[in-house]
Structures are given as C-alpha cells and as structure tokens.
Structure prediction request, 684 residues.
Amino acid sequence: MTVEDEVEIMGQRLNDKIKKIFGRSLHIREVDAGSCNACEVEVNALSNPIYDIERFGIYIVASPRHADMLLVTGPVTRNMELALFKTYNATPSPKLVVAMGSCACNGGIFGDTYASGGGVDKYIPVDVYIPGCPPRPQAVIFGIMVALDKLPQKMKKTEVKP
Amino acid sequence: MNREFTEALKKEFGNTILDEITSRNETYLTVKKEANVKMCDHIYHHLDIPLVSIFATDERKKEGCFKVHYVFSIDKGDAFIIIKINVDEKSPKYNSITHKIAAANWYEREIQDMFGLVPAGHPDPRRLVHFEDWPDGVYPLRKDFDINTKPSRVEGEYVYRRVEGEGVYEIPVGPVHAGVIEPGHFRFSVAGEPIINLEIRHFYTHKGVEKLFENISLDKAVFLAERISGDNSAAHAVAFCQAVERIAGVDIPARAKYIRVVLLELERVYNHLGDIAGIATDVAFAMGAAHANRLKEEILQLNEKVTGSRLLRGMNAIGGVRRDIGDKKDEILLKLSEIQHDFRELIEYLMSIPSLVDRIETTGRIYNDIAKGLHVVGPIARASGIDRDMRRDHPYAAYSEFNFKVPVQKAGDVNARTLVRADEVCESIGLIEQALWSLPEGEIKIDISEIPDGYALGYTEAPRGETLYWVMIKNNMIVRCKVRDPSFCNWLAIEYAVLDNIVPDFPIINKSLSLSYSGNDM
Ligand code: SF4
Prediction:
C-alpha cells in the first residue's frame, strides 16, 4: 500500500469521527516544548499536498484560544515549562492533549535532567501518547484519531497551576 | 600549512606561547592568559583567519584549571589553529575579545553561564543560556555539577535593551508562535511599520545536550548528535563520528564515505526544498509552496525507503554506516532525476513571478561586512559574498573526489539566499549521482572497540552551514563534547537583517535564514 492509500483510508475514518464529535472540524494548536525540530518537520508535513489533512477537517490554528487539542512535542525544557502551562490554561475546556514523539512521551533521549523535564505528563494531563522519534505522519494522524475517542469522557473543566 | 602559521605566530608572540601540540590538521597553542586578546586579534584581523568557535573545558582534576579554546579555521590550507588559555578556579576571569571580534559575543556569554568563567570587559555581560530564574553560582558544565540536579527557581528579571523616542513602541513575539515552528522570543522596536531594533532571546529549548554527552556511552552519543537539530541529523551525526574516528586514528572504508556523502546531500536537498517552500508560503504564493513541499516530501519518502528513516536517522555509526544503500542505487537515481527536472521548472517559474521577486529582492539584506564580522556561515554567508564551504575547504568523507561548484551571490537579500539554495540543490543532486555511479566495493563499517584517550575536531557542511564538534575522550567515555551548530552563528545576523524592513517582511526574512532553535539552544 502506498503512503497515499494509507493516508486516504485513515483520513476518511478520521473525517467521519470529526463530523460526529465536532460537527465539522477539529482545531489543533501545536506546542513545541523543547523538541529537536524533527517532530515539527513531521507536523508540517501533515499540511503538504500528499497528506493535506485540512481536507479531513483538521486545522492547525495559530492560537490556543481557538484550539480543541494541543499537540505537544519535546521533553518540556525548564525554560518552556511556564509557556506550556500558559498555553494549556489558555485552551478552552474540554481539551485534549496529545504528546507527540518519544521526548514528549517520557523525555526520550534527553531524559529528566537540569534542563529537560522528562515528558509532558509531568506537567499537564495527557490523553494520548504517540511514540516515535519522530513519529511518521501516518502515526500522528492515527494518534489524533485515538484521542478523539476520549473527548466524550472529558466534559469537565480542568485547570492546572504552575 | 599549520607550520607556516605557527612559525609566524611564534615570531610575533614567541615569549607568550607556552606550549605547542600538532596532530592531524589541528595545532594547539597554549598562550599566557593575558595574551589572548592580542593573539586572537592578530590572527583574526591581521592574518584574516575566521574564528569558528570558542569553548571551555573543566580540567581542574588533572590540570588544576579551566581552559578556554579559540578555534580558528585556515580555509586556504585545510588547517585549524586552536589558541588555549588556562583560567584558574580561584579567579575565574579572563579578558573578553568581543570588543575586537564581534563573533565572540555569544560564546563568551555561553561560557560564563555554563562554566562560570567571566569575560572581563564584555560589552553585554547578561545571561545567555540561563533564564533569570536560574540561581547564581550554579554552572552545569562544571564537572562537580550532577546532571540530575534541578536547581530551584529564584526571582529575577531579564532586562531588554530599550529604544525610546516619539512613536516608538515594542512588539513582543513568542516564545509560542503562530506557526508550527520552534520557540523563541523576538522583541521588535518599531516606529510605524519599519523595524528600528530587534532583540532576540533564545535558549527556551535548552536541553542540556553537552552535559548529556558526558553521561552516555559513545554509541548512544551518535543518536544524541542526530537529535541536536533534528532536520540536520546526518550532518551532526557525521561530524560527531568523524571527531571520534580522528581520535581513534582510523580511516573508515571508502564505501562508507561515499554513502555518507549521499546521506548528507539528500539532507541538504530536502532542507533547501523546505526553505524554498517556506519563502513561497511567506510571500503568500501557495501554489509555489505546494510544489516545493511536494518535492520535499518525495525526498523524505525516498529517505525512508533507502535508510528506514524519513530524516536519515540511525544510519551513521562510529566507524562507518550501519546499512548499505547499494541495492537502492537505481531507485535513488531515477527519483532524483525526476525531482531535478521538476525543481528546475519550479525555480524558473517562481523567479518569473514579478510579485514574488518584488517581495524578496532587497529584503532582509545582510551586508558582506556584517556577515563577515559576525561569522555568518552556510548558504546565508554565501549569499552575502563569502566564499566558504567546509566540503571544499576542509574536505571530509569523500568530497575531495567529486566535482561540485560552491554557488556564491553578492546581494545578501532573500532573493540571493533563494538563488544560492536553488543552485545548491542541483549541485547536491550532482554529488549524489557521482557518489552512486562510482560507489566503491567493500565494507561499510569497521569495528573500533578501543578508543585511545585524546581529542579532535569533527566537522561537516550541514544544510545550514559549518557544523563543528570538538570531542575529548578518556577511558572510552566522553569528557567534553562541544557542539557548534551553524545557527549559533547565524542567529545574530537576524538582528541586522531586519533593520529598516517592515514588520510584515519579518517572516520571510526569518524563513530565508532558516535558523534552528534547537541547534542553537541545545
Ligand atoms: S521525539 Fe525525537 S524527533 Fe521528536 S523532538 Fe524528540 S528527539 Fe526530536
């Protein structure tokens, strides 16, 4: 199966889910909490003409205020901790958090050190983990799909304090 | 080449040179601490040799002091001169050279934050890597700092430079940006639309990489090098492996060298395609961007087919490469010829759109003297008339066996940077073809089990420019690994590139410089 076929099949399933849960579209805000930038390469790839996820109803937005989901990359560096809290709290509830990449899942190769925070779930609640370094775009689409199933359980407002 | 220079230096500074060691193309001269400014100034201004890195080492245990190293690159003769000074723990001060060599600015501040060595007389002695909430007197790269300590946060304030005047106001941007890019802070002072000052503040993504190198095994260190600046994985991995291979004194198999060239050039092609796409996006020319992005994606998919990783990871190892690509030769050649055809058409098309050219011509100029003064590297330097390229000036892997041109432009604007990248894409494809056509038979990796104690430089010309490693090994462990990503040099140039441009042009200028935050912050 070619990449295009894979994306087509998953994208259609995703599209159906988004229609059911959100009516039309899912808004995602990407937060780089100290990644190596390769995860960003793959998030950006999602918008290229091969994947073109906008056609499935996924829109990557410029502000957390517009977002239903945060897609977080990186191990959460000491210097990004505050920005991550602020972004999380600025996102309206109910919100979903997806940790993308090995670093975001548990610190990855950067671990838990004076500078690296050892993973996103130490700071904010995470709904879905997408392993990989970086995960392929198909894996990211799949992870987003899994996260959607969690939304109905999450209708309660949540806030964390820095 | 080194001999000539050292002799000349000895004549000039005979009594201040305490020690001289030469190995490979690196000459280390230990000089009296007080002589550093004069010596560096002489090499830089009088002999016209660029300063490519400054770093410190903590050798208190063995030598009783810290050492500061100034690395100069003799491009005409494929050699490096490294000036060393000893800095005592009790009075951890040495003279700053920034007032003579602007390119030293960030290095000295970095050393101050990471080692606690104070560059006396530095014009801007603020913190660089650490934020205001980092406690005084804690220096992560000192040997007595444990990597797992988490110093508690303290109160503090970061003072930005202020521009005052009628109608001047500030626009703070970041660290979290509107697009999918890495975090960093930009503070513009503007009067109406034109930018009169930009101050950048980085190190949001500081992950303690250099300290981490000292705490992991050599094999794992290759993976770490790949993750310093994710889209320059191959360039970083090769630079690191080469440094270790030089310490070990081994020559890797020819086939591995050729494969490395293929990987490094594939990386350059997809990065440049992405940058060209980004420039098209930022001038709101979506169709051009879509085409360039499609070509980039095709390279990423080719990478995956050939190496198993879209970003060429896991291919390099100390002693060679892990996987042969010989059986994929025809596939690569076929794909690249298609891509080259489409790319040529695309560039011709892009450059024929007057409204696009109008946005990029004269935008974001970096004049030659600024580029030289700040030691800007890579395609950005070459677009400002600096004819430097590590592949030609300090050949590594198999580059000395191939023909390729180093494109240079004079204008220093976004247009020039786009043209340099476009030409480089074609040169890179040419290099891959040459390497695959003449791929030598044989092994792809040799086993290096024991690595003798020692130190060496390793370097590559990454898509963003000169990438430099200095590795020191003892008992098969890394005691120091200094990484100098090209973005560490190039970020400073953005503050000049935006001057007198209007705020809406900032994204294009930023994109055309293609700067890595992670590579800079580490
Ligand atoms: S998971 Fe891997 S690719 Fe993603 S940011 Fe971390 S190191 Fe980079």
Remarks:
- The CA atoms of residues 41 and 134 of chain A lie 9 Å apart.
- Residues A 35-36, 38-39, 73-74, 101-103, 108, 133-134; B 227, 230 surround iron/sulfur cluster (CB under 6 Å).
- The radius of gyration of chain A is 15 Å.
- Chain A has five helices and five strands.
